[in-house]
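During the no-cost extension, the postdoctoral fellow (Dr. R.K.) reprocessed legacy sequence entries with the updated structure-token encoder. One reprocessed record is reproduced below for audit purposes.
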Amino acid sequence: MDTSLVELDVLGVRRQGEQDEVVVLLLDLVGRRLLPIVVGPSEGSAIAVGHAGIQAPRPMTHDLLVAVLAACGGVVTQVEVTELTDGVFHAAVVLDGGSRVDARASDAIALAVRIGCPVMCAPDVLEAASLPVEGETPADEVARFRVFLDTVSPEDFGGDPGEEHDAETGPGEP
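Re-encoded structure tokens follow.
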């Protein structure tokens, strides 16, 4: 594994811009950069469905690939966004034996969200195509909320935890 690669979180798929482009949003938590990749509508749908964990009644193409890999004993260790050439993102699917399979970035990401493997990115691709993240990221919000949950007690909400209350007025209100 190339240790210079940067791990990205798949935030999701969005439509944006005047032309209603479908964009996959990938987040570099360490460098606080957002990598948007424009994909086609069907590719975006495949990523969104996998990201949401939705199971189709019959296997879709990426589900089929996951099943074939499993049947053959292949394990995907990670996918890598390897380069950006003439506005096109290129990727590789990396198998446990070290084999690398050339892929479109959208297909690699659709595979990664289904199997839960890391999405890695070459630093030069991030340098060329990422946007700085200002303010708090969704991961920052989740981390803050986890700290809150670890430290909160029933008393922090006022009133006695065993006190009954009216559903319309709330605890301690007449």
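The mean pLDDT is 86. The helical segments are 41-52, 61-71, 105-115, 123-129, 138-151. The remaining legacy entries will be reprocessed before the final report is submitted.
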